[in-house]
Specification:
This protein has 77 residues and is mostly helical. The chain folds into 2 domains: 32 residues; 39 residues. 77% of the residues lie in helices and 0% in strands. It has 2 helices and no strands. The longest helix has 30 residues. The chain is elongated, with a radius of gyration of 26 Å.
């Protein structure tokens, strides 16, 4: 009976070590501080207008793709 318990304890220790290793690796990958887009010189008019134009074009492209998919595959005559 003790042999089974020893194997169980070793497997549990290995599993805990693996979980701790994965936790440490995920902190390295995901632990970077987020980039604050508003902190990059808000007075620079090229960045402000570039961001606005990019958001507008991205929104228009998304609306067009949704419209095209709906008229092509859903509302076909």
């Amino acid at each position: 009976m003790s042999n089974i318990e020893d194997r169980h304890d070793r497997a549990a220790k290995r599993a805990r070590a693996d979980l701790e290793r994965l936790q440490a690796q995920s902190e390295k990958l995901l632990g970077a501080p987020p980039v604050d887009t508003n902190a990059a010189e808000p007075q620079d008019w090229t960045e402000v207008w570039g961001r606005r134009i990019g958001i507008l074009l991205g929104t228009c492209a998304a609306i067009y793709v949704i419209y095209d998919l709906l008229t092509t595959y859903i509302f076909t005559p």
